[in-house]
């Protein structure tokens, strides 16, 4: 009986200690999670201009005929092709280029270049086109009136107008007939510390032609690569300081 | 306003079957235009000829024509008020009315072509002041308010003392307004056909010509249909003024193209518009230059210009040429590929490096014509209910003998 009692007491003690230890572990764990969350940015926190998200495209690594980035982008953002080539939205496209004099050929992905001084945001009458503090160019679909002036102004032809009723939208990528849309640099992924879909798809295909990162952090891989290797902005003459830069062009 | 002998304003009777038939036809055009707008909004712009390459189509051609012509239609009143030219003063009321009506017609087309016209209230409440479109919202609404007051000052002795200041403000405002309209294109760095500040003064001179052509047609039409007297000598002065405006448009067009031709970078767009652009080259040479400039200049400055019939032909030619000109500027400027990769031949699934295809659809045309009909219906209705037009525009009124 006494043995039994001591056994019971030791079991109780064990259970109690386990519970304390478990609680402590849980507390430590949740603490870790909280720390991570604080780093990521809570949904109600404003976006910081301490970072500037950007992409570095290496055209030398971009494989002719491969469209994995485009497919991933359109799948991620719920963009379906209805077969009307001239009016279907294309947030991303592959462009084949050939030097008119030398015949040198290359291919590269084109999308919104997320300019610092973006013509789309300049001309938008309502302010629906805007540049987020972290450098991502977006369209506020609630106040876009569908005037298409931004499409007239964009030197990269990066925007699409929704010519038809949109179905199968993704909750993270609101879209609608009569408004303008473009690459969001997968802002929903960026906000939860994930890579844009195109970057992920390019890496999955083994090409690693698109790199994502913080251009303002001198220690980030993208910033170090840009500092040590040649890269250029498309239409650099316009001095729009795009967040997307290219190598091998 | 200087007091003029024998000047009496009276509304037109507007009881003839012809008048009501015309109003009915215009009303039908408006219904068709509204129907087209509803069709476009319901199905989306997929039912138009517009695409992700040509984002502004035929409705913009009509809308911008009407808006540009609106500010030009006010010129007649301005010349009378600001520059004190007596023969222009009696038609000041009509000039102001026409300006307001054309602007309203153009704005309705512009708004109904939006992707989300239901969000007009957003455009009225949220502004990005770096956008020329945002300025234009103020310029257009301000124009209606100022010209409305100017018209009131011309018609009511109670506020008649404000006639001159209102006229001056309206004149300055209309110059700024057309500068704004031209700058919509002039301040676009992305496309080679635009990106030229000369588009702002070009649009101002275009407005002078288009507005006066419409004014002349309507004055001759209304005075002919109502058997009211219209002085030949004054008509000749007005058509000569039209000739000067048309020549000035031609001059600025030549300067614009010389500028683009001088710069190697823009040789591509120039050879597209001037030489091998198919329908755009034809519209430029036949529509804009031959019909819109050379033909009216020939009519106006030869003996043909003494005939009212030929003055009317010249006015119609200026309008047709003006629409061709805006079509070449707006559509031609968009179908030509963007200089995204200078020195490289580009191809993609998104029409990079190729001339885009655009064919206007019926709904677009009906919407545009609906705007024209709204402007004309408004003018024809208001001259019936208000004392806008002088009973006579004869020499006794406009060119009284020096002794009197």
Structure description:
The complex is a heterodimer of chains A (249) and B (404). Chain A has helices at residues 2-40, 68-76, 119-123, 149-153, 187-191, 197-204, 221-228; strands at 53-58, 92-99, 105-111, 129-131, 137-139, 160-161, 180-181, 210-214, 244-247. Chain A is an alpha+beta fold and 249 residues long. Chain A has two domains: 1-40; 53-247, Alpha-Beta Plaits. In chain A, helix 2 packs antiparallel against helix 6 (197-204). The radius of gyration of chain A is 24 Å and the shape is globular. Chain B has helices at residues 17-43, 58-73, 75-81, 92-112, 120-125, 132-155, 163-186, 199-225, 232-262, 267-276, 279-300, 308-335, 362-385, 395-398, and one strand at 344-348. Chain B has 14 helices and one strand, in the order H-H-H-H-H-H-H-H-H-H-H-H-E-H-H. By secondary structure, chain B is mostly helical. Chain B has a single domain, classed as Formate dehydrogenase/DMSO reductase domain (Formate dehydrogenase/DMSO reductase fold, Up-down Bundle). Chains A and B meet through strand 2, helix 3, helix 4 and strand 6 of A and helix 5, helix 6 and strand 1 of B. Strand 2 (92-99) of chain A pairs antiparallel with strand 1 (344-348) of chain B.
**Percentage beta strand of chain B:** under 5%
Spans of chain A with pLDDT under 50 lasting ≥5 residues?
27-39
Radius of gyration of chain B: 22 Å
Mean pLDDT of chain A comes to 88
Helix and strand composition category of chain B: mainly alpha
